Amino acid sequence: MDKWEESFLRELVELDTNSDEKSNYAECAEVIKKYCEEAGLKVEVFDSKHDETPQPNIVATLEVGAKETVLLCTHYDVVPAGDVESWKKPPFKLTLEKDKAFGRGVSDNKGNIVACVSAAKELIQKGTSKINWKLLISPNEEIGGAWGIDYLINGKPKIRGDFCIVVDSGPEYVSIGASGVVSGTITVHGNQGHAGYPFAYANAIHLSIPLLNVMLDYVDLRRKVISNLPAPPGTPHQKLWGRFSMTMYQSGSKSNIIPGKAEITFDCRLIPEENPAEVMKSIAEFLEKAKEETGVEATIEFKMNVHGWSSDPDDKFIQRFHEAVKEAVDPDIPIAADLGGNDGHFFTEVGIPTACYGTLRDDNNYHGLDEFMHLSDFQSVKDVLIAFAEKGD
Asked: What is the mean pLDDT of the chain?
């Protein structure tokens, strides 16, 4: 990482752009715009400005008069740092140690932003790109993308290209798909009262235990849902599979009060071939059976549903990109699909073949404490983008 790249990344990491508070979005967009222009890119800013909150989307273009235009999709919003006191490195200060760069968002996804802009900068200096680039740098990815990439693709700008690379994945494989997600909350209903009279009230915590035990069987059902796409290397199955997890439990307000309500939040991961509406119906039906079996009263509310997506592994752009990765990084890098979700579905839904590659290696602690990026992965991503641009059609 050279001094220009380090300065760019440092300015990005120092801005807390967490998706809960949505602060510093305008300031972050200004930093990105400045460095994109220094790189020689033409910059446009499209602000979706949802709920009066600035949400600038940057579109930075490298036009070489080629017949093909490739989109690079990245995002500058991050997840909250959480317990800042538990970080060994300050989350909003770039720390470089040997082959690692530390800071919130450094791998997910600000390091990838810098890699994209730096690759474009080098291509402009050398004059070697055989394709046109559009770098799409947005907010809102961590909460669904509605006012970010969705706005650029389906809103007023209606950005289009021949191929898209979502630079928001791992370096161990070329991803040609991602999991969908259905999330929501199951609420167990009891009735509240004085803890000295437990016989007089229905304790929602106690009631939830047998219900949760039955719902655990749904984990096994989801495990049997298998995709046609390969799973990432090193995971427990050869093909991508369905997953169901209960992730949050909330109940009670005081030690001497019998709780009348218990809320269980769940996260269900879909294979790309699944329809979220059908999965939501399946979860709701399973809960009804669990209620009948246990006699527990409960309701369900779905909070999010996002389609998974996939691209044809034989598509010419996918093949060319895979070849560029193998040439620039490792001849044995496979094609697979992501366990998590990303913004790729916005592109495939409008007919743009899409692949993913990036710095998000499994050990990076992204979304956790002391997030970091391997500088060697940063260089690999940059090298891949340059190699792909120089290959052309």
From this structure: 96
- 89 — pLDDT class (breaks 50, 70, 90): very high
Beta carbons within 10 angstroms of residue 235's beta carbon: 14
Q: Is 243 exposed, middle or buried (0-12, 13-18, 19+ CB in 10 A)?
A: middle
**Number of helical (H) and strand (E) elements in the chain, helices listed first:** 9, 20
Task: Render 196-238 in DSSP notation, one character per residue.
Answer: T-GGGS--HHHHHHHHHHHHHHHHHHHHT-EEEEEPPTTSSSS
pLDDT in tens, 238-252: 999 999 999 999 999
**Strand, coil or helix: what is 289?**
helix
pLDDT, average across residues 108-116: 97
How far is residue 158's CA from residue 150's CA, in Å, rounded to a whole number?
9
Q: Where do the structural domains in the chain lie, given as residue ranges?
A: 3-178+308-391, 180-306
3-178+308-391: in CATH 3.40.630.10: yes
Mean pLDDT lowest among 46-55, 127-136, 232-241? 46-55
**What is the full DSSP assignment across 68-102?**
-EEEEEEE--B-----GGG-SS-TTS-EEETTEEE
Q: Is 194 exposed, middle or buried (0-12, 13-18, 19+ CB in 10 A)?
A: exposed
For range 297-319, the mean pLDDT? 95
CATH number at 180-306: 3.30.70.360
Mean pLDDT of 311-337: 96
Cis preceding linkage at 109, omega within 30: yes
Token digits of residue 237: 């199955």
Q: Is 391 exposed, middle or buried (0-12, 13-18, 19+ CB in 10 A)?
A: middle
Residue 284's pLDDT band, with cuts at 50, 70 and 90, is: very high
Answer whether 170's CB lies under 8 Å from 358's CB: yes
